[in-house]
Specification:
By secondary structure, this protein is mainly alpha-helical. It has helices at 3-21, 26-29, 43-62, 72-109, 112-169, 173-188, 207-214, 220-234, 242-264; strands spanning 33-36, 39-42, 275-282, 285-292, 298-299. It has a three-stranded antiparallel beta sheet, with no helix packed on it. It has a two-stranded antiparallel ribbon with strand order 1-2. Strand 1 and strand 2 form a beta hairpin.
Length: 301
């Protein structure tokens, strides 16, 4: 489970705790509410709704504890419930204002149907606004989740490479080769889905083919030879000598450098390589930024 998912669980539980502290006020204010389009909205019902969706969010995120890999359906479900809980109070307040405005306007216009029409129209607008806000908030959560996963992969990749170099220096050439390939497997998970031959997330049996297909033609034979050395080291067919291990580590480092360079050329938001560089000046200061033409992300760094 990623650190960002743990943070989301903490925030969801924190919101639940805040709701529970407000429970004593329900006896006095729970029935306070309004009627809109034939439905009765009350603070007590809002309380129950938010408690339910926050509980479902925590449950969905908690499923991640069953595995080290990211379960996208559970994460998406948790994000949806969390976003709904965040948007619900604002939507409740907006609908309350709409109901009060419609009730106040109906006597002035002296048309019973006008109040209903106004309520329906404004309610639809409020619902659309809440849906848009939820979509944008959910998209932001998904972006932060992907960035957190990428940061975690980079840490695991660097740690595996360091262990490989330490093992090589200690003379454990077989283990050094195996550890280097662990770094390569971790890095393969960062290849955008659109650029994978299989069009899906790498699995245990096909991540190497995905990486190989992503490499230049002249590097693929060296990578295939490195794989054979790794298999030989992993199954203890015969000892790996120092020169062979060094060549394997160099190949892995070359592949990792290509993957890292590709990541630097892609949008951190959507993974697109359709980036353009924009230049200008503001108040006498020159600036330069990268902008993604696919999603509109702007990198000011």
């Amino acid at each position: 489970m990623g650190e960002f998912t743990k943070e989301k669980i903490a925030f969801a539980i924190g919101l639940l705790a805040v709701l529970f502290t407000l429970t004593p006020f329900l006896d006095q204010y729970g029935t306070t509410g309004f009627d809109l389009v034939g439905v009765t909205f009350s603070i007590y019902r809002l309380y129950l709704f938010m408690s339910a969706v926050l509980g479902l969010a925590v449950y969905s995120y908690g499923i991640q504890f069953t595995t080290e890999r990211t379960l996208r359906p559970a994460v998406v479900a948790g994000d949806v419930f969390y976003v709904v809980a965040i948007v619900a109070p604002a939507l409740f307040a907006a609908l309350f204002v709409i109901a009060e405005a419609a009730d106040a306007a109906a006597p002035i216009v002296r048309s019973p149907s006008f109040g209903t029409l106004l309520q329906n129209g404004l309610s639809a607008i409020a619902g659309a606004g809440a849906s848009l806000a939820g979509y944008l908030f959910g998209k932001k959560l998904d972006t932060k989740e992907k960035r957190a996963e990428a940061a975690k992969r980079e840490l695991l990749e660097v740690a595996a490479l360091r262990r490989a170099e330490d093992l090589f220096k200690a003379g454990h050439f077989d283990l050094a080769v195996v550890e280097a390939f662990k770094a390569l497997e971790v890095a393969s998970r960062g290849i955008p889905a659109a650029h994978r031959p299989t069009g899906r997330r790498p699995r245990t049996r096909d991540w190497f083919q995905i990486v190989s297909g992503f490499m230049p033609e002249d590097l693929r034979p060296r990578l295939e030879q490195a794989r054979r050395v790794r298999n030989m080291a992993a199954h203890s067919v015969e000892p790996v000598v120092e020169s062979t291990a060094r060549e394997t580590l160099n190949t892995v480092n070359k592949v990792l450098a290509i993957l890292a360079g590709d990541r630097a050329k892609r949008c951190p938001e959507c993974g697109s390589d359709d980036l353009v560089t924009e230049q200008g000046s503001d108040s006498g200061f020159a600036w330069e930024r990268s902008r993604c033409r696919n999603c509109g992300f702007v990198d000011l760094g």
